[in-house]
Design a protein that fits this description.
It comes from Mucilaginibacter conchicola. Keywords: Membrane, Transmembrane, Transmembrane helix. This is DUF3185 domain-containing protein. The chain is of the alpha+beta class. Helix content is 49%, strand content 36%. It contains two helices and two strands, in the order αββα. The chain has a two-stranded antiparallel ribbon. α1 packs antiparallel against α2. The longest helix is centred in the first third of the chain and has 17 residues.
Amino acid sequence: MNKTLGLILIVVGAAMLIWTGFTYTKKEKIIDAGPIQVSADREKTVNWPPYLGGILLVGGIVIVATSKKS
């Protein structure tokens, strides 16, 4: 179980170091007046600090290195 968790942390940490965020589009309703509706596509961005990916990567390596061999 610990090895699996460690490997997941390594993969997620490496991905977070490579990609420091992502952007998605959300449709928002601007005007809703009876039968008339106006909507617009808004671009939202989610960012995280690169050191968070490094922490997860190092934590995953430590967990894998200290897990008991079965």
